[in-house]
């Protein structure tokens, strides 16, 4: 994968927090920041898909939103449970 060096300006306390998080994960700071940027782009793409769907089909009902939140909470709980097991 080709890379490009860029310069960005961040608050010093944010840089310190990010550096600490990267060190905890054992990854370079640039990889941590790149991962955050990639997640942001995926979220934006997901929001665009949802907006497109809603433009065609109408907004989600409160029931649909509640069901989606429940499914996401279940998936989060399952993931966290399995990640704790594999870390042990």
Automatic annotation (TrEMBL):
This chain's protein is named Ribbon-helix-helix protein, CopG family
């Amino acid at each position: 994968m080709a890379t490009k060096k860029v310069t960005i300006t961040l608050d010093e306390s944010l840089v310190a927090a990010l550096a600490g998080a990267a060190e905890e994960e054992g990854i370079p700071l640039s990889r941590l920041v790149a991962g955050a940027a990639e997640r942001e782009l995926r979220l934006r793409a997901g929001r665009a898909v949802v907006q497109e769907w809603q433009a065609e089909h109408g907004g989600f009902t409160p029931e649909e939103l509640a069901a989606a939140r429940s499914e996401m909470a279940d998936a989060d709980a399952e993931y966290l449970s399995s990640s704790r097991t594999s870390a042990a």
